[in-house]
Amino acid sequence: MRPYLSVLTIGLLAGIQAASAQGILSLQNSMDFKDKAPVTYSVNAGLGYDDLNYKASGLNDIKSFFMQGGVGATFNNNDKITPWNLGLDFGILQYLNHTPGIADTDYSGRVVFNISDQISPRLKVTDNFYTTYETEPNFGLGATTSGRNGQYFYGYNNFAVSYAWSDRFSTTTSYTIDGIQYQEKAIGNLEDRLSHLLSQQFSWALSPTLKLVAEYRFGAVNYKNSSADYMTHYALVGVDEAWSARTTGSARVGAEFYESGRGNQTAPYFEASVNHSVSKTTTASLYSSVGYDPSELDNFQSRYSYRVGASASHRLTDRLTLNADINYAYSTFTSTGGAPDVFEHDLSASAGIGYRFYDNISVNANYSYSIVTSDDVTREYDRSRVSLGLNATF
Description:
CATH topology: Porin
Radius of gyration: 21 Å
Structural class: mainly beta
């Protein structure tokens, strides 16, 4: 986790209907409309220690104390027909011990905007927008590199139109665009890219809470400076289920057809998410995905990854809260030209505790650990971070 980034919580999507036809990426980038407060402002400050150790020699380890701070705001409109929300945050982290080759200051900024419009009883339009400027790798999504490679911009937008042709049969058409650009040219020459995803979904309601789904997707990934461009076709079936007002889930399974100038492949595809509110004090989320990833292809033909993650929060008392999350990925990098394939394990986990002194002031402590093991020793490292912070909302 990156505690200095967030005064804005962005988690797994809680509603099945919003998850339709958007894919696992949007499940983690979206916000729902549960927050009833029209406007909330946040301020945070803290300090901590970062210990990053590379296995290969010649790379710059980090062993430094740091200070961090951030501000944020959320705006909510809970209109029954056209609800929307907007989230903004900005953060800065300053390393106190200079590390050669690594910037002493990290900046972060994030904007999230979601809107839904029930144009008629049958027609609904939604849009989910997310953009961030940050430094750290995102182990859950796999959009960024697994290692720490400087500041980057990442942007995402999903637009979807749903129409109910009858009480049971409905369709959803969506278009998703996302892209990433690194500040470091050496990394950007390999990773800068723009991706497009078109989806057509057909669903049949077996009951008010259970839908059967058939879906086709077409994706195109275009690199700015690399020759790793590729296209994918998906043939999927799945279900959307609301077991109760507290528990929802969505799953898709099928085949992914991968086509690039470096070779064509076909492999199974899977994605799923489950969100569960155990009680008013406990929530938990789980996601999993299996498919081709666009990041860190370099001279590889493809990257096929298995990803799983979970997060949970529990309020012990009115003042004391515990939280934890874990993300794991196993990737196979298929080489070209007869070179051996590369296999990699990525694991990140964090745990935190928060205590609210007053209605709007709290203190929190967080510990996170991440490790990457790979057949390529230059990619291997382990990292521990500990932080203590103060937060205020108003």
